[in-house]
Specification:
The chain has seven helices and 13 strands. The protein is an alpha+beta fold. It folds into two domains: about 10-90 and about 195-230; about 105-190 and about 240-260, Periplasmic binding protein-like II (D-Maltodextrin-Binding Protein, domain 2, 3-Layer(aba) Sandwich). The strands form three sheets. It has a six-stranded mixed sheet. Strands 1-2-11-3-12 form a five-stranded mixed sheet. Helix 1 crosses helix 6.
Length: about 260
Amino acid sequence: MQQPLNTLIASLPWYDLPGSALALDAFWNRLREQLCLQHPDLQQRLPNQLDRETGLERQWNSAGLILSQCCGPDLFRPDTPELEVIARPVFSALDCEAGYYYSHIIGRTDKLSDELRVVANGPTSRSGFIALQEWLQQQGIEPARLLFSGSHQQSLLWIKEGRADLAAIDAHSWHWLKDDTLAILDRTETAPTPPYVMHHQSPVSAESMRKTLGVVLLQNTNEIGISGLLPSDKALYQACAIRPSGTAAQSPDQSGLFPAPA
């Protein structure tokens, strides 16, 4: 259903997966109720549903964006100067420091070699690309091919189909995407969890949204796997925006594959 033109924008795209979509919808409904109580003047503008249609870049540059998510490196893209960090989530099921996360190294075999075809979800992804490159360098592996699939879900499909051999999958996403036919071979270094963000001109302040998110999260820890929030800002993600040496994003060749970094 199309929203009125003056409707604000809310999305939770980073973990909006087939197994989590209903829980995220319920979470947004409760969050919207709280926002209506705190900001009655915005009641008619708050969206009834999460936006799953508008492109992320367009959302991130809309002054009506009151809530979304991005990867740490996305904060430093030249086309996202308007994003403001709200806070970062604490993933309840991960075995690491609160407010941090890691990726599982997923493959069909544990026989690693330099002939590996590795697949990442996108060139600005911390969990799927930068963490993978760090892990490969730690192992002394230079893959034969680097592919970009567009999503963690697609990366796993390519491994199952035999189009790729190895991927780094956000461990929080793996909760919904895990497949018994694929193996967890290792895990990457930790990094700050992907932040909740908003446009800096949003009619709801970052402080107000942070407090409201915190209240609603206390009621939904089991449903979406988040037990709370921690303060955050762009400076925390500065290191995540720096790619390991030799990992600059490449353009695809005619086959749609990306050449491995030098």
